[in-house]
Amino acid sequence: AQKITQTQPGMFVQEKEAVTLDCTYDTSDQSYGLFWYKQPSSGEMIFLIYQGSYDEQNATEGRYSLNFQKARKSANLVISASQLGDSAMYFCAMRERGNFNKFYFGSGTKLNVKP
Amino acid sequence: DTAVSQTPKYLVTQMGNDKSIKCEQNLGHDTMYWYKQDSKKFLKIMFSYNNKELIINETVPNRFSPKSPDKAHLNLHINSLELGDSAVYFCASSHGLAGLFNEQFFGPGTRLTVL
Q1: What is the DSSP string of B54-70?
Q2: How is A35-60 classified by DSSP, letter by letter?
Q3: Chain A contacts in chain B segment 70-89 (CB below 8 A)
Q4: Are the beta carbons of B91 and B23 closer than 8 angstroms?
Q5: pLDDT at position A52
Q6: Could B108 and A43 be called an inter-chain contact, meaning their C-beta atoms sit closer than 8 Å?
Q7: What confidence tier does B86 reach under pLDDT thresholds 50, 70, 90?
Q8: Do the Cβ atoms of B97 and A100 come closer than 8 Å?
Q9: What is the pLDDT of residue A5?
Q10: 3-state secondary structure of A99
Q11: ∠ CA(A7), CA(B34), CA(A51), 5° rounding?
């Protein structure tokens, strides 16, 4: 089974609107971390936000928030007030305590923000 | 200060040649990684090193040989380059188990084109 699943290969959002990028994960480990990265067209990988499995509150970083639903094993990224500069690939990733030398990445979602 | 650096940024070479990519991190991390990102943007882990020791080797052809002279460096040597090796190669680093919920830091990537 896939460790990280991102089911939206591409998405469009209107500038200034909010958008949710989906991520589901598969693990039997009790201790794990979930991460989101942004990759703009320039190619670099930019870390956005993380959520630990024991965190009860959803993580937030500026316009980014992580909607963590542990029972559903989902860790969706919410971007509020989208900007043109948010157009990029977004990757969800997970790291498990039992296999901490490996980060599992999803296949990514390409977000296009329309003016 | 650059956290994870890679050289070269671009590499264009002929089939059959041997080439190397160098990676250095100044973050004090003890784990380093090599990823291959194909044209569909899928990120595939190739190798993971912890304290200079190879931990993960993800069914990569043995034409690829990583070398970690110390914790801050992880180089990738590729023999007998093939057309299918064309991709962007990312180096990354992170803390080990002690930093389970800490993110991975990525280098800027090396775009390898094999003609």
Answers
A1: EEEE-S--TTEEEEEEE
A2: EEEEE-TT---EEEEEEETT--SPPE
A3: 88
A4: yes
A5: 95
A6: yes
A7: very high
A8: yes
A9: 97
A10: helix
A11: 50
